[in-house]
Amino acid sequence: MVKKRRCARRKNRLNKTPNSPLHHFTYKNDRLFAEDVDLTALADAIGTPFYVYSEATFRRHFRVFADAFAGSDALVAYSVKANSNIAIVKTLASEGAGADVVSAGELQRALHAGIGPKKIVFSGVGKTRDELSFALDAGIYQFNVESEPELVALGAIAQEKNLSAPIALRINPDVAAGGHANISTGKSEDKFGVPWARARALYAKARAMQGIDIKGVDVHIGSQIDDLDPFETAFKKVAGLIADLRADGCAIERLDLGGGLGIPYGEGATPPHPDAYAQMIKRVTSPLGVQLIFEPGRMIAGNAGILVSRVIYVKAGEERRFLIIDAGMNDLMRPALYDAYHDIWPVQKNDNADTETYDIVGPVCESTDRFAKTRRLQKMQSGDLIAIMSTGAYGASQTSQYNTRPLIPEVLVNGDQYAVIRKRPTFDEIIEKENLPDWLV
Question: How much of the chain, in percent, has pLDDT values that exceed 70?
Answer without folding.
Answer: 90
